[in-house]
Structures are given as C-alpha cells and as structure tokens.
Design a protein that fits this description.
65 residues; alpha+beta; Double Stranded RNA Binding Domain; 1 helix; 4 strands
Amino acid sequence: MRVTIRIIRNEHGDYTGLCTSLPGCLSRGRTPEEAKEKLDEAIRGYIAAVGNFVPERLVHEELGV
C-alpha cells in the first residue's frame, strides 16, 4: 500500500509525522525516525479501524518541508 507522509519539526523541538493520505492520522517522536515508526503504527491502526484491513507492507512517499 502506498501512502504519502510528511515529517516536520514541531514547536516543541520534536517531530510530527503526518499521513496526508489519511486525514487526522499523525504521530510524534523525538527523532524523525521515531516519528516515522510511530506513524506506521498509526496508519495500520487507522486502516484496520475503517477498513478492517491491515496492510502487510507500507511504502512511503515523503513530501519536502
């Protein structure tokens, strides 16, 4: 499954991960990598909740800041 994500530094100094393909799906982490890992979990949970489907593999397409 292909999704579009964006990792940005927030006002608190950590990072926010946004999945622009899924409205309201986001995460936070101390590093960009942690934010991305947590975002993967959030994406899987989002899809499982709305579609009763958990993708086996996610492919990220990152947007520039």
